[in-house]
Each structure stands twice: as C-alpha cells, then as structure tokens.
Design goal:
Chain lengths: 113, 114
C-alpha cells in the first residue's frame, strides 16, 4: 500500500513567521510531488510542485525534496492570516500509473494576527 | 478554474436510492478523476478515466461505478447509496503546468445519505 503521511495539525504560527509543513511517502518510485492548498469549503488548488532533489522557490513558498529520506516539505515565509488553510501533499508514483496522485490527509495551518 | 463544473453541488438522499454525480469539462482533457474527501482521510481516488469508454478503479471503488460516453462528461453513480458514502466528492482533470502533469479540481459536490 503506497502511503503519504502528514501531521494533521493544527499547526499554529504567528503572522510574519515561517510555517513548515512536512510530508513523507513510502514509494521510492515516486517521481513528482505536489502541494495543494484547500480553504474550508473549497476545492484544492495547486500551489507548487517539485520533482528534483533540493529546493524550489516561488514567491513566499519554498518546496524541498529529499528522495533519499523520502520526504517533501513546504515552507511559507512571512505567513499571513490568508495562508490559514489545509495543505495537502500529493505524490505521483510514476509512469504508467495514469497520472494518479496519492494524497496525504492534510495539515491544517492557522496563522494568528 | 480549468473549466470544470460539477452537478449537483449539494444533494441529500436516502439510503438505498441511486445517485449520479456529473463532472463536465470544457478543455478536452483526456484524463478525468473522481475523489472523495472525508475528515482524517484526505482525498481518496474512486475511479478514473483515460479516454471515452476507458475507465479504471481507484483505491475506494466498491459501491461506485462510472461512465464516460463523451470526452467532456464523467459520471459517478452510486447504485444504492449508503450512509458511509456521505462525503464531499471532487472531480479532477489532468493538465500540464510548465511541462509537468498535474491535476486540477472542480468545485465539489457535498452528498449526504440519510
């Protein structure tokens, strides 16, 4: 059973701080990794993806991937109350899998003013 | 929003009744997916389609069937709804973002089975 694990939270950080969200996965054949943000009552929206070891930055967001340790993380710098949402980690387990994604259970982030 | 709509957006039904949810896309994407989302479980794949009349099961397919007779429509049917199928259902399409395959989601359908 391929698994993706996240701490469910809630993770609470003060406004302006760095929020760090973590995700581990079980399938070493996994090839690409995604972070989705989901506001309460809304659908998931893609915020970042990464497929190479190391860091990838996009504005206030940085995704980090370590395939040897099988973890992927998302850092949110200068956190804002509008970042309060559930963050879903998803993993594409590779070619021939129909583009299927395996999702973690999500981490709820709360940014306090 | 990747041109995805879902209908109905909300539905309340009774145990044992059939229910069909519709996903409609306007951008001719080949792959479409149905997920359910429950507290503590994240998103779980029910079925997916890789073309007209081509479908396959996901991890939680029991009690569900799908059909795709046109590229733009992917239907999810609960033949005899049970209370355990109370959930939020999301449809997704497979698209491309800077050369990487990814998925984009519709607005969701909240289904309550009494």
């Amino acid at each position: 059973q391929k698994e993706v694990e996240q701490n469910s939270g809630p993770l609470s950080v003060p406004e302006g701080a760095i929020a760090s969200l973590n995700c581990t996965y079980s399938d070493r054949g996994s090839q690409s990794f995604f972070w989705y943000r989901q506001y309460s009552g809304k659908s998931p929206e893609l915020i970042m993806f990464i497929y190479s070891n190391g860091d990838k930055e996009d504005g206030r967001f940085t995704a980090q991937l370590n395939k040897a340790s099988q973890y992927v993380s998302l850092l949110i710098r200068d956190s804002q109350p509008s970042d309060s949402a559930t963050y879903l980690c998803a993993v594409n387990t590779g070619v021939g899998q129909g583009g299927k994604l395996i999702f973690g259970q999500g981490t709820e982030l709360s940014v306090k003013p | 929003d990747a041109g995805i709509t879902q209908s109905p957006r909300h539905k309340v039904t009774e145990t044992g009744t059939p229910v069909t949810l519709r996903c409609h896309q306007t951008e001719n994407h080949r792959y479409m997916y149905w997920y359910r989302q429950d507290p503590g479980h994240g998103l779980r794949l029910i079925h997916y389609s890789y073309g007209v009349k081509d479908t396959d099961k996901g991890e939680v397919s029991d009690g569900y069937s799908v059909s795709r007779s046109k590229t733009e429509d992917f239907l999810l049917t609960l033949e005899s709804a049970t209370s355990s199928q109370t959930s939020v259902y999301f449809c997704a399409i497979r698209g491309q973002d800077r050369g990487t395959d990814t998925q984009y989601f519709g607005p969701g359908t909240r289904l309550t089975v009494l």
